[in-house]
Amino acid sequence: LLARSRDLAFETAYYAPEVACGALLLAGDIAYRAGRVDEALASYDEASILGSDFGLRAEADFKAARSLERLQRREEAQERYLQLLLDYPAEKRWQNMTQRDLVSLTVGNLRDVERIVVLEKMTRDYAAYPELAGYAQAQIGDELARMGQQEEALIAYRLVLRDYPRARFLGNTVLLKIAELERARGRPEEAATALELVVKEYSELSGGLEALRAKQALRRLLLDEAEGFRRKNDSQRALVLIRRAMETDYDNVRSHRALVRLYCEDLRRTQDIITEYRRRLRGNSNDAKARYALGLALTYPPEGGAGVNHGAFPAAEVELRRAVELQVISVSYT
Predict the structure, then answer these.
(1) Against a cut of 0.85, is the pTM above it?
(2) Contact status, residue 256 vs residue 293, Cβ threshold 8 Å
(3) Residue 88 near residue 54 (C-beta atoms within 8 A)
(4) From CA 328, how far away is CA 289, in angstroms rounded?
(5) How far is C-alpha 171 from the geometric centre of its chain's CA atoms?
(6) pLDDT tens digit string along 148-159?
(7) Using the 8-state DSSP alphabet, how is residue 330 labeled?
(8) Under DSSP, is residue 56 helix (H, G, I), strand (E, B) or coil?
């Protein structure tokens, strides 16, 4: 199969270099999995030369470096990884994987403090590769966090934000880690601030898994803190946090449910929340979340409290069925 793949590659190289590159990558993968790493390396090298597509060439170079590493040719692997970072700055997938593997190659099997010393040296040695140096700095934070040194880890993570502002993806990842540590240390406001920065990035870039995770994490954080204030009978502070959660992630049903519950059970202002959601529906009759919340609010007694308003069940059922028709069930419950 390896021979046939190479024959196909050379036969098609002139007419379709991408096909040739793809065939050589496949041949290399087959050889690599079979343990014939020298053959795999040769295929990846040929693919890198023949390929005209930057993504395929970056993949070939990454796999070539990985093969060199497996062959214990560490210095050559390191040089190949570094060259990839220079040659393909737009190929973020391979850039990120290269940074990870290069750091792993450099640190090796060192332990704790030794790992941190080597990572600190990487931040200095690779100043010409800011994303790699930033990744090494983030790894310092990870190591410190793993060792239980939370305050030192926070300092290391904040150095990434200060010194490598152009590494946007890395910055978002680090902000999530800062939020996690701040929350673990009992500082929810600092955690919320970090998450809000990523959510802002999300709105500007219109996408990104890290930003979406931040949006969900921020909403969960705010609702958890609101529930804590409810248990302390501090309804006003709980209300502020719930409304912030709704602003962050309006499409999540949990925020609406928390708002209705607070108004009806704690504030005993059932009619006020019913009026609010009816007003929302006058603006958009297809708002499934508002339909759901209105139906839920109608099940509470008019005077508030945790009881049930049996007389309003038919009206509540109409709203809830309409919400289902509008696919409220598809809304995230994470």
Answers:
(1) no
(2) yes
(3) yes
(4) 7
(5) 11
(6) 899 999 999 999
(7) G
(8) helix
